[in-house]
Design a protein that fits this description.
Length: about 650
């Protein structure tokens, strides 16, 4: 049984010799039958039998030659946006380029190629063209080995149901392997489907942005595309990442998620509390919190917020003449004469009197928890307070410096700034496409903080969408995910599908993610939330091992040939033996080292719950103007019930 399943195509097409012999025999029997040298009732069946066997053997030899001819691989293909649209006529499907489903027979062929020099078995690709196969061989100048894709001569357009991608997709590949091209294709399809699209691009790929703009130009309204770039704030929109929240504590949690981690967690916890005290105070005063206000009151002191909060509290509880109360008048008199110790220079005499009255004359049952927290912060030693907020202030300062502060903490009443003010709720409701360039090359710290804060806000929005019920599908694309990953993004990967967020992340190596998260175990835990894996060329061994573990193993057959001979002491005594052994062992479905030899834009993928495919992405050229095709029908309805699969 094993022998019938074994195949060795990397050899000469010996079947052609047998085919030629059978066709010669056909001619012989036809001749002797026609000349009467053999009775025709006998010659004709023999001629037909020989002809059938000849055709069979020639067909087998052609199959071997076709397979060998496909070892020249496939050249990089460039298509226009119109051509891509023709491959994406069904919005409920995702187009993954061209290729084939990877089966055990392909693994067998690949393992056999590792034993030989594939160049010795190449056949002119013109044979493929003559037999009706599309033949555009990979030039020698291109990166990678062509035979990896050539183990299957026939490729087809690859489509998978959109529903299979709700669990998240990971793109892995080294520099210039084709991650940007893959993202361009997936983003264009998301725009065409009518999704809300959010692209987080740390390195500011001009080509990827042009593709996104072209997709909006072709398939959406004129004002759909939005851009944010910290280096060119005047050309984009202003983003308010503290606008959407259901509980004031959510803002503190967002700020905490972008703080650098500390071992014990004490500094992170105190940073959360410091932000929460300010946020609660601003909400009590009916002011909308933003990053600039948080920085101002954490760095400069809580005193202005506390004083305004106490004034409002006394007016509400003690009446309009609260300043004329005897106890209050006495405290104000002592404070203005300098008889009270100031915790900080920012504390006014009025504030000292207000706090003293609150502490000594307001009953415990009448006190306000928000004011209690502010008074506690006010009484805290200022020097110690600055030390324990040392992790928090640098992050806030990065996000509020210069023009960036006006872009991330927009002032709606600033008549001189006409840039649109956006937040994720407005982007979602209007169906926008937001392209966020983080500019990580010149300023990686700020880029990381912006990206992490955006993801924290989006995670909060996902929770809000899940709580409220209806939502519009969001396609989130995060390039170079190791630059911005944080706990909110992991929560999006873990639970975002239930909130209608389809996430696609790209990275170069597992080590990059491990460095960001602290350990390889933490990186693997985060990646475990992504159901689909698309692996382009990767040179890093741990990354290769992670990929091939996902693909699993298959049975590989190996032939072992033994030949021995010997002579005895007696003249003429001689012995020899020949043996063939076919063995089977379980090996990786795709050898790890093959991932480092993939040509640009070619990939192995595990999608739809373990379906392995070998494919290649075509380059999408956004510069070719073509007549617009009809806009596609949206893949799903705008509003979906909680937990309903889009």
């Amino acid at each position: 049984m094993l022998m019938r399943r074994y195949e060795m195509p990397w050899r000469r097409a010996y079947e052609s010799y047998a085919g030629a012999a059978w066709l010669t025999a056909t001619a012989f029997f036809a001749t002797v039958g026609a000349t009467g040298q053999l009775p025709r009732p006998l010659a004709l069946p023999l001629a037909l039998l020989c002809f059938g066997m000849g055709v069979l053997r020639i067909a087998q030899s052609v199959g071997t030659l076709v397979l060998r001819a496909s070892l020249t691989g496939r050249a990089i293909q460039v298509i226009s946006t119109g051509e891509l649209a023709r491959w994406c006529r069904k919005p409920e499907e995702v187009f993954l380029g061209f290729g084939f489903e990877w089966r055990p027979v392909h693994s067998q062929r690949l393992y056999e190629l590792a034993k030989v020099d594939y160049r010795e078995f190449r056949v002119s690709p013109r044979l493929l063209t003559l037999l009706g196969y599309e033949s555009k061989p990979q030039p020698d100048a291109e990166i990678g080995l062509p035979y990896i894709h050539g183990v299957e001569p026939r490729e087809v357009p690859l489509h998978r149901p959109l529903q299979n991608f709700e669990g998240g997709t990971l793109l892995v590949g080294t520099t210039q392997s084709g991650k940007g091209v893959a993202l361009a294709s997936l983003i264009t399809q998301a725009v065409r489907r009518g999704d809300v699209v959010i692209v987080i691009d740390p390195k500011n790929s001009r080509r990827l942005k042009r593709v996104t703009q072209r997709a909006c130009q072709d398939w959406r309204e004129a004002d759909t595309f939005l851009e944010f770039h910290p280096a060119f704030p005047e050309t984009g929109v202003r983003l308010d990442f503290t606008f959407n929240w259901q509980k004031p504590t959510e803002i503190a949690s967002r700020i905490q998620s972008i703080m650098p981690p500390d071992t014990a967690g004490a500094f992170s916890a105190f940073g959360w509390d410091a932000v929460n005290v300010v946020v609660q105070g601003l909400v009590e005063l009916e002011e909308r919190p933003n990053l600039v206000k948080l920085t101002k009151y954490i760095e400069g002191g809580i005193e202005p917020v506390l004083e305004a909060t106490l004034r409002r509290f006394y007016e509400r509880t003690l009446g309009a003449g609260w300043r004329e109360l005897p106890e209050m008048k006495k405290l104000l008199h002592d404070a203005h004469r300098g008889n009270m110790k100031r915790p900080s220079e920012a504390a006014s005499a009025d504030l000292l009197a207000f706090v003293a009255y609150y502490e000594h004359h307001i009953a415990q049952s009448q006190r306000n928890k928000v004011i209690d927290a502010q008074v506690r912060t006010f009484r805290h030693n200022r020097e110690h307070y600055q030390k324990i907020t040392a992790n928090l202030l640098p992050v806030l300062s990065m996000l509020t410096s210069g023009d960036l502060g006006q872009s991330l903490s927009p002032e709606p009443f600033d008549a001189d700034d006409r840039r649109p003010i956006m937040n994720f709720e407005k982007i979602e409701r209007a169906g926008h496409v937001l392209y966020m360039c983080l500019d990580s090359l010149p300023d990686p710290s700020v880029a990381t903080a912006i990206g992490a804060l955006a993801l924290a806000d989006l995670a909060a929005r996902a929770g809000m969408r899940y709580n409220l019920g209806g939502y519009r599908r969001i396609s989130l694309f995060v390039d170079e995910v190791s630059n911005v990953i944080n706990q909110p993004l992991i929560e999006i990967l873990n639970k975002g599908a239930e909130g209608g967020i389809f996430t696609t992340c790209s990275m170069q190596t597992l080590a990059d993610l491990a460095k960001r998260l602290g350990s390889e175990d933490a990186a693997r835990m985060a990646l475990g939330n992504l159901n689909n894996l698309i692996a382009l060329r990767s040179k890093d061994r741990p990354t290769q091992d992670f990929v091939v573990e996902t693909f699993g193993k298959t049975a590989i057959h190996s032939v072992r040939v033994g030949l021995s001979s010997g002579a005895d002491a007696h003249l003429g005594d001689f012995s020899s033996s020949y043996s063939t052994q076919l063995t089977e062992s379980f090996e990786e479905m795709v050898p790890a080292d093959v991932l480092g030899k993939l040509p640009n834009l070619q990939y192995f993928a595990s999608v739809s719950g373990g379906r392995i495919i070998k494919g290649r992405f075509p380059i999408l050229d956004p510069g070719v103007d073509e007549p617009k095709l009809p806009k596609p029908r949206p893949a799903t309805a705008t509003a979906l019930a909680p937990g309903q699969v889009p």
